[in-house]
């Protein structure tokens, strides 16, 4: 770790120690012992700041609570980890974690009707309204990850034995949501381009009807799948679903928060997004949005009454288990939202950078892009079996040679040891970093005597 990065963490930790003095003291009162601790803490911070400025000093704190390593991947490396890129927190979100880290911090000002989405200070209620507008739906709730959005819809619509149509590239959490509800997944086959087409959806619906004697109760499709990040015709698929009067769930785990999403234009009955995957939010976080038509069912309130106490909690929403995201997870999501709302307007530039980088990889002879190309997304699957894997076959470190080479140049996030088929994501990287990535991959190829056609990269 760069000593300045190390010392920055140490300064933050030292400030937290000073903060703890105030948290333990009486209101607006500090004892002589407190004042001494504050002075010593401030002196410590000053020394650390001097080290940061001069780039000197030694690592004084290597673990948190004695066992947890300091995570400095984003400070010290270019991270191309496929599911991390769009989940990097904004500075505002990191500040929110500091200020709202206490467990129920969002509930300080909770008043009747005692529900998360009704809290006005901090502005959680307005945030829910903004989320709905953001994806052009009528109502929205925050949920602990996209998977809990799938779960809420499935548990509402799916009964034992019901069929749900999903892509052959569907995420495992879609399967689990259907299984938990007692339903059965029916997969839509892919075409030769690894895409799900509206025609294939119609054929699958007909096949399910013929096999079971009834229609599926839900069609659930990823806009960009997690395996190839290919773009599927969700608007056409939604139209087909509605022709059969089947509701359509739009899985925007890789779109909501990075590119514009218009749920009503798509024809979605439900829009699900991932906060920690695509909205610069702490995990676990996500969003479930729906129309006014479906909201009374998806966001139904409890009708149960205690048999002895006669207690009832009618304002609590069953699928949300009353309240969902609390504390710093939610506030971090809210703190990042202004940036997220703006950055979706620059999606074309992100895709342009993705294609530039992959052009550089393709110029290493033998490399392939398995995702549709040119790319329409920043997440991609590549095949370097006939390039970097040929080196791995003769290298003493096998496939880990590439990880070694990359980390030595400050690049991490590729699947360690993978030199055949692997995924990466360039989202959020500057053009300077994109150029550095291309140069580094090609320099590694040169070093190991792979042919590089640099003249082809514009």
UniProtKB/TrEMBL annotation:
<dbReference type="InterPro" id="IPR015424">
    <property type="entry name" value="PyrdxlP-dep_Trfase"/>
</dbReference>
<feature type="binding site">
    <location>
        <begin position="146"/>
        <end position="147"/>
    </location>
    <ligand>
        <name>pyridoxal 5'-phosphate</name>
    </ligand>
</feature>
<protein>
    <recommendedName>
        <fullName>O-phospho-L-seryl-tRNA:Cys-tRNA synthase</fullName>
        <ecNumber>2.5.1.73</ecNumber>
    </recommendedName>
</protein>
<keyword id="KW-0663">Pyridoxal phosphate</keyword>
<dbReference type="InterPro" id="IPR008829">
    <property type="entry name" value="SepSecS/SepCysS"/>
</dbReference>
<keyword id="KW-0808">Transferase</keyword>
<dbReference type="InterPro" id="IPR015421">
    <property type="entry name" value="PyrdxlP-dep_Trfase_major"/>
</dbReference>
<feature type="modified residue" description="N6-(pyridoxal phosphate)lysine">
    <location>
        <position position="277"/>
    </location>
</feature>
<feature type="binding site">
    <location>
        <begin position="274"/>
        <end position="276"/>
    </location>
    <ligand>
        <name>pyridoxal 5'-phosphate</name>
    </ligand>
</feature>
<comment type="subunit">
    <text>Homodimer. Interacts with SepRS.</text>
</comment>
<dbReference type="Pfam" id="PF05889">
    <property type="entry name" value="SepSecS"/>
</dbReference>
<comment type="function">
    <text>Converts O-phospho-L-seryl-tRNA(Cys) (Sep-tRNA(Cys)) to L-cysteinyl-tRNA(Cys) (Cys-tRNA(Cys)).</text>
</comment>
<comment type="similarity">
    <text>Belongs to the SepCysS family.</text>
</comment>
<keyword id="KW-0648">Protein biosynthesis</keyword>
<dbReference type="InterPro" id="IPR013375">
    <property type="entry name" value="Sep_Cys-tRNA_synth_arc"/>
</dbReference>
<dbReference type="GO" id="GO:0006412">
    <property type="term" value="P:translation"/>
</dbReference>
<dbReference type="GO" id="GO:0043766">
    <property type="term" value="F:Sep-tRNA:Cys-tRNA synthase activity"/>
</dbReference>
<feature type="binding site">
    <location>
        <position position="251"/>
    </location>
    <ligand>
        <name>pyridoxal 5'-phosphate</name>
    </ligand>
</feature>
<dbReference type="InterPro" id="IPR015422">
    <property type="entry name" value="PyrdxlP-dep_Trfase_small"/>
</dbReference>
């Amino acid at each position: 770790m760069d000593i300045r990065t190390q010392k920055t963490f140490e300064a933050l930790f030292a400030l937290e120690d000073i903060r703890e003095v105030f948290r333990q003291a009486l209101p607006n009162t500090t004892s002589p012992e407190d004042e001494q601790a504050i002075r010593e803490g401030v002196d410590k911070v000053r020394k650390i700041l001097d080290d940061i400025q001069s780039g000197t000093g030694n690592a004084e704190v290597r673990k948190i609570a004695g066992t947890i390593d300091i995570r400095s991947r984003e400070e010290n490396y270019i991270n191309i980890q496929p599911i991390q890129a769009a989940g990097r927190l904004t500075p505002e979100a990191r500040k929110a974690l500091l200020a709202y880290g206490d467990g129920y911090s969002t509930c300080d000002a909770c008043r009747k009707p005692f529900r998360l989405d009704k809290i006005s200070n901090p502005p959680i209620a307005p945030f829910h309204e903004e989320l709905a507008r953001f994806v052009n739906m009528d109502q929205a709730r925050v949920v602990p990850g996209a998977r809990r959005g799938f779960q809420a819809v499935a548990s509402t619509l799916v009964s034992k034995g019901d069929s749900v149509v999903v892509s052959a590239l569907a995420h495992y959490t879609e399967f689990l949501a259907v299984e938990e509800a007692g339903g059965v997944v029916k997969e839509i086959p892919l075409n030769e381009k690894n895409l799900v087409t509206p025609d294939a959806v119609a054929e699958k619906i007909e096949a399910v009807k013929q096999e079971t004697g009834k229609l599926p109760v839900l069609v659930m499709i990823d806009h960009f799948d997690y395996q190839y990040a290919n773009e599927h015709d969700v608007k056409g698929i939604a139209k087909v679903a509605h022709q059969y009067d089947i509701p359509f769930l739009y899985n925007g785990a890789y779109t909501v928060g990075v590119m514009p999403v218009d749920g009503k234009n798509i024809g979605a009955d439900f829009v699900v997004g991932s906060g920690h995957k695509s909205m610069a939010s702490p995990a676990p976080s996500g969003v479930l949005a729906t129309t006014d038509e479906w909201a009374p069912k998806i966001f139904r309130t409890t009708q149960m009454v205690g048999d002895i106490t006669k207690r009832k909690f009618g304002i609590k929403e069953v699928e949300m288990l009353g309240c969902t995201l609390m504390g710093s997870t939610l506030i971090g999501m809210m703190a990042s939202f202004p940036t997220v709302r703006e950055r979706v307007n620059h999606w074309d530039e992100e895709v342009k950078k993705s294609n530039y980088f992959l052009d550089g990889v393709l110029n290493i002879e033998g490399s392939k892009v398995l995702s549709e190309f040119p790319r329409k997304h920043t997440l991609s699957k590549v095949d370097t079996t006939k390039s970097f894997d040929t080196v791995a076959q003769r290298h003493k470190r096998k496939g880990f040679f590439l990880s070694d080479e990359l980390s030595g140049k400050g690049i991490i996030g590729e699947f360690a040891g993978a030199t055949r088929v692997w995924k990466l994501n360039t989202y959020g990287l500057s053009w300077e970093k994109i150029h550095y990535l291309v140069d580094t991959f090609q320099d590694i190829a040169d070093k190991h005597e792979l042919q590089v056609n640099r003249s082809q990269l514009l």
